[in-house]
Amino acid sequence: MNSFYEMLNLRKDELNKYRNDVVKRLGRLKYKGTPKCHIRMSVKKNQIYLVQKNSKEKYLTAKQHVYAEQIATFEYLNEVLKNIDRELKQIDSFLRKRSSSPEDYYESLSKGRQKLIVPIRLTDEQYVESWLNEPYEGSSVPFGDTEFYTGKEERVRSKSEILIANALAKHNVPYKYEYPVFTEELGVIHPDFTALNVKKRKQLYWEHLGKMDDESYVRDNTYRINVYEKNGMFLGDDLIITWETVKMPLDVKLVDQLIRHYLL
Predict the structure, then answer these.
(1) Does the domain at residues 138-263 carry the CATH identifier 3.40.1350?
(2) Please, which residues have CB within 8 angstroms of residue 68's CB and are 6 or more apart in sequence?
């Protein structure tokens, strides 16, 4: 779905949550709108007056401010409710009249016609195919090391990397293993995984730190993470980090959560 319509539907969900909250708060109020009252504030004198039709204004003492709060809250929540309903009506009206977006129109064409046309925006499938087919030279795993292979028969460096790769594949997240990235401080580095959030068309780097018991390893990788951030790849935004020690192995459930949060 086009991101604009996604935003509208997200806003609709948000408004409905507000509406439910407003209705609950109105239900908890002792003042229900009868008799019909209003509050007038005297800012200069810091005084509150109760206004009723065909009645004289009544000054409310400090002890009576609770009553004023009830009336003011009732009026506020009712106005908010009107605004919410108005905006929901506008959103629903717009969504009902929704026509095919320029991006979606390509998808409505026959497969034969699609082959004759280069769309103004690649479909997700075309985008992923283009991204995956980009040639690159990874960092080679030295011969003689223990051999670890993913479900896709890719050779990786550890059992934990097998778990991460297989989890990405399970969720159909496109990824590249040890794709090269240039940094000012370290030159070309090779993150363990470069994964693609197809929905946002954004790539994220995933580093797994597997030797957090080793002091020099921790020092080197702390510097490496700082290098990422100095080069505009920020932890939690462009960079995912997992780690383990001998006594605390990689948490597979956490890997699954990270994929759902950042890449789906």
Answers:
(1) yes
(2) 39, 48, 50, 60
